[in-house]
Amino acid sequence: MAPEQTTVDAPPPEQARPAPRRASRLYGPLLAFLITAAAFCAAWVARGTFPFGNTGRAINDQANQYVPFHRALWDLVHGQAAGDVLFSWRGGFGQQFLSDYYTYLGNPFSWLAVLVPRAHVDLAVFAITPITMGTAAAVMTVYLGKLHPGPWWQRGVLGATYGLCGWALSDASYIPMWLWGLVALPLLGIAVEWCLEQRRWPGVALLVALAWFGNFYTAMMATMAACVLLAIRLVTRDMTGRLGVPPDGVWGSLRAVWRAATAAGTGILLTLPLLLPSFLSSGAAQPTKAAAFDPVRIEVFLAGMLPATHLWGGRPRLYVASLGLILAGSFLLNGSIAKRTRLVWAAAILLVAVSFQFPPTQYVWHGLAVPNGNPYREAFVFSGMVVIVAWLALAHRPRPPHLALAAALLVAATFVLRHTNDFGGWTWPAVLGGGAVSLLALLLLSLGEKRRHLIPIAAVLMIGVVFAESAVAAANADARRARERWAKPAPTSNQSINNHFEAVRDVDGWPAYRTDSGAPQTSYNDALALRAEGPQYYSSYLPEATYKALEPLGYGFKNDGRTFFGADNPVLDAIFSIGARVRPGTTPNSWTGSKFPAPPLVTVRTQDFVSPNPAASVWARQENVLGATVYQVPRVTRGGTATEQTYEARCTPGSEAYWYSPTLYGTLASGGTEKPLEDLMTGVTPLGKVPASGRVDVTVKTRTQGATAGDTPLGCLDRTALDQAVTHLTATGATEVKAGGHTIEATLPRGTTGTAVLAMTDIPGWQCSAPVKSFHGLVSLDLPQGTDKVSCTFTPKGFAPGLTAAALALLTLLSVTVAARRRRR
What we know:
Layout: H1 27-47, H2 61-77, E1 87-88, E2 95-96, H3 98-104, H4 121-147, H5 152-163, H6 166-171, H7 179-196, H8 201-214, H9 216-236, H10 249-270, H11 272-284, H12 298-303, H13 322-330, H14 339-357, H15 359-365, H16 379-395, H17 400-416, H18 427-447, H19 454-481, H20 495-506, E3 514-516, H21 526-530, E4 537-538, H22 544-550, E5 557-558, E6 563-564, H23 570-575, E7 578-584, E8 591-595, E9 602-605, H24 618-626, E10 631-632, E11 637-640, E12 644-650, E13 656-659, E14 665-670, E15 673-678, E16 685-689, E17 695-702, E18 714-717, H25 719-732, E19 736-739, E20 743-747, E21 754-761, E22 766-768, E23 773-775, E24 778-783, E25 789-794, H26 799-824
Parallel strand pairs: 3-7
Antiparallel strand pairs: 1-2, 4-6, 5-6, 7-8, 9-21, 10-18, 11-12, 12-17, 13-16, 13-18, 14-15, 14-17, 19-20, 20-25, 21-24, 22-25, 23-24
Helix pairs in contact: 1-4, 1-5, 1-19, 3-11, 4-5, 4-7, 5-16, 5-19, 7-8, 7-9, 7-10, 8-9, 8-10, 9-14, 10-26, 11-26, 13-16, 13-17, 14-16, 17-18, 18-19
């Protein structure tokens, strides 16, 4: 075997080129961006996906969270939000907003949503995906150039294979904030190179901050990957100190690690005003029942590395285009690269892959938490490392026999894994067709050293095969995912939604009263999307305190209590100062709003009230909060069968019957109407007026095994008693209420004593003019004699210390920058 002539860090003399002009440095990143964004959009065009057709685009949380939160950002920037960046009065009867902003809106490209008309915010959200993926490809192209020089167009093509990796196409294509992790990985790779070069410490800190400002979850994974990259580079690279003086090996490594650690710490501290409140909000959030990590079978894991494969459910999507896989496969065989470099990179990639299957290390990748969803959210790290070794192989001119052997191994692996559960239908065309074109392009490129006219042909083939194969992979991922129930696209803009929004605006009265956007809901965050103030709210940060306040009162929920729905119930309306509600109109796509009397947001209670109805019933719990008896809770007689249950009760004729059975799933029939029952998701439900006979008959057809509606599923509302309670609360409550961004102030009648109750849940962060205490889960405070005003301010837990830490980090950053400039002078 011929002796090794070069290392990964020392290009052969014949590859040396004059320093490129500044403008030409943009060619590679621009090419990578265009290939990536165009390939992803081509998949939309091929499937007729909105905005290139009528097929829905918004799936799962994209419709329920990301579009509504981006509309909330639009309202915030345009001065039309009920709240500010710290707090939102819309959704969940008032909730923190800072953590939601950091988690769902941190991607810098999210701000594109504020540049378009509000009606087109959803289109801007969809555009964030190809723009972010293209940016990731462009930054990776820059990083590859720092690892080893080479033609800009070759780096651009491989940068695009990273931007179009399986994780981006199959897992994160509809999650704009996670996609920033795809950008963060090469950003932090550049930061690692600067640390090794012993320069640009402030720049390293700013790159770390930029990565973490976008999304802490995937930035954490990218930071761990950067630690792996730093370790690899320390082992494989002979560092040179400043001014070209070779430092001691160990001392130089320690200096690089010290620079990386201090810069990373400073960069992360800069994000602490967002990071710390989000961390504390997560700790105070309603717990979920995430299952323990269960690694997939080894053949399924390996199948995830094959191009254009989209496996069902929580499977790893680890692939890159066949061009990248063939080059990566030839890396170990490339004698132009130092043996140590090849072995270290190969071992590191293998260890990273193994760590995805080993529960302890998998928990570390996910921040010591069990992922609630796909457990392989760090898969982009593996794909990025594969692209890196593919570039190192390409930059060192791989020999045709090595390329052919790598292609043959890819075909053989595909053949062995062809019977894997849910093996992708487009994998064979990608491997055989894309692999053949990729191999041809690389062979032409090899021949181009002597026949220069072949290089443009090779370039066209390489660009074309990555574009076509990735577009097919993206379309295949969308098509296969759409067959899963959870991924059914939901509308985010149409005439009905526009009319719904206008109907909410027509009856808006905030802060004199709240407006409930009603049902049926378009998204789980309709209050944010439609500028209402009802209970509808869906966030990973929904506080446990909110769950404990709303669940006992009969509001429907799902996702272990992190999603709450509305309830058409006048007692709940009175408790939470809802004075307007929107309902579907009589004509298609129409909505009508109605107003009705409601107490102010701040009411006064002079004595404790205990309902005479059964204490465990939802009706008694509502009365305890309202402070008056308004329900008749009759004795219910149950009959029928286990699957078709009948209930009979007697109430006062003319009263209004309501039903609550959170353990039953099926349909409910009463008074000639039929309604769906979705167990916990269905809150208190109106049945209509009690007939003159006083008899209420209910039939429930259920699929819930062994469950019944319980002893008190029926409550009959005395509307006159409720009106009297509302009148009393209004007369004794606040005469004026002012709600700021994260503040509320109320003026009370003179001589008021007792307890002021504010119609918002007692979540962590409220500080009031008197000590806060919980009133059945709501904020309340005792009123000293002579009190005529109360006020409260919301500050997210951890925000103040986060600001302090960020200020110190910024001071450190500025001090180092100024000191460095003085030394240079």
